[in-house]
Design a protein that fits this description.
single chain, binds iron/sulfur cluster
Length: 118
């Protein structure tokens, strides 16, 4: 269930709320503006259009028109900066750390789940 604040929000995913906080440009609510207006005119959606926002690594990359610099929410969640190169990109300076962390987690025994009512 989405938090009440999220009802009608044009935010694309849960992590996008972090991006919203970094830039202090809220995702408008479709109850208050037309979706087309939000899509084309809002600061939140325009912040990462084009290439001007991209870090040099992405701006000089031949894949920038394929993946548009990767996921901004992932960059915010894992790098703490929505304008960073997507940390899951193999060219990202954070990629090695991410791979090490994932390897460590994959070898850690999973916690035993206890289901209610069983
Ligand atoms: S995220 Fe990686 S592949 Fe995509 S444009 Fe940036 S550097 Fe290139």
């Amino acid at each position: 269930m989405r938090p009440l604040r999220q009802v009608g929000s044009s935010s694309l995913c849960v992590v996008a709320i972090l991006v919203e906080r970094q830039h202090a440009c809220p995702f408008e609510n479709v109850r208050e503006a037309a979706l087309a207006t939000i899509w084309y005119e809002s600061d939140a959606f325009n912040a990462y259009r084009g290439e001007d926002w991209m870090p040099d690594l992405c701006r000089s990359c031949e894949r920038k028109k394929v993946d548009f610099g990767g996921c901004r929410c992932q960059a915010m969640a894992l790098a703490g900066d929505a304008s960073a190169t997507d940390p899951v990109c193999i060219r990202s300076p954070l990629r090695d750390r991410l791979t090490r962390d994932a390897d460590k987690l994959s070898t850690t025994p999973a916690a035993t789940l206890t289901y209610r009512g069983r």
